[in-house]
Amino acid sequence: MEQLSWDIESLRILHQEFDSFITCSFNAAHKVPIKSYEQHHIRCELKHHGIISESGRKRKQVPSSTFFYRKAPAVLSLDKEELQKTAAYGSANNNVGQSLTVGQRLEEYEKEMAMFNSIRAENKQQKRDEYQNFDAIWEAVQKKKGKKTLKALSENSGQKSRAELLAEQRDYKRRRKSYRAKNIRITQRTPTQIHRDLIAAYMEDFILLNEFEMELESKSLISKSNNSNNSE
Hints:
It comes from Diversispora eburnea. One of its GO terms (molecular function) is zinc ion binding. The chain is mostly helical. Among the domains are: 1-58, no CATH class; 133-222, no CATH class. It contains nine helices and two strands, in the order H-E-E-H-H-H-H-H-H-H-H. A two-stranded antiparallel ribbon has the order 1-2.
């Protein structure tokens, strides 16, 4: 203590001064005496919110840009007075109804469920009436598809001349037996090609089904017209 020029009285004073310091609530590194804490608190709060810079000068206020948006239809002004007027007008014209009770909510739910069940049952009945003879219709569509395929094959085979058939036979004989084994990657189909073939097949079935249904409707209309003529 003698080498540092300290004595008991000076240490006691330093200890009292250290106890008189308060930590700033905005920056824990700031140790401020009790006397100047209030002034420091105000200054540090302004710095914390960005109102004044670190040098202590107040930031320059940016000029208002409302002049350039006076005629703009979709710009909302954020002036305090206008916001207060808007809030007062909204609270005065607030016509929001009261919240429903548990019983009212259950009643609304039961009504919606009853409506949903009735619509679902009606839809099922319509589908049942529409497709009650679907197996027979689908079998007739498949027969029609088979006839159409045979007709297309016969037309394609009939269009080829004798020279074309001989050329195909000649090309087939020229190919080696291991041609397909070596070029198997060429004959393999990608998943995209498989999906395209499936979609094309389903679309063909749907087109044939639509044609068959149109034929049935036309036949039923013709029969109805004949019956009406006979009755007259």
